Amino acid sequence: MKFISSYYDQNTGTSYVTVQHLGKKFEGVAHTHPSEKDYASEFAGCEYAELKAIIKALKYERKIAKVKSDEALDFVKSCLCYKNFNPDDPSTIVVKRQLQKRINRVNKITDEINATIEYLNERIKQRSNFYKKIENKKTKTDNS
Prior knowledge:
Layout: E1 2-9, E2 14-21, E3 24-31, H1 42-80, H2 90-143
Antiparallel strand pairs: 1-2, 2-3
Helix pairs in contact: 1-2
């Protein structure tokens, strides 16, 4: 995955990041929450937008891997229909191993997507909690 560009619009609080993966460009967009306009951060916004672009790129990669996996599965299923098919033949074992590799690749990419989504949500939550604490301290100081 290759980082291409980023842009932060201060007027709207929107961040845009473009990454390139497998020869395609993917754009991630992150908007500042209206309640956190005072704490808008170009760095945080671009981090969130980059993670969203990475998620899009990984989903595209998973889609391609899934197609390859499904094709291999269809091939194995069609071979099983032949009356002379020998499941113990070395070439059959190789084909099944390749099929399992493709299935494992799809699962690995799915796990990576889920981990990235979880990380993004955790970063957003951490930042939100941090600024809520600041707001609470401001409120307490103003009331004193």
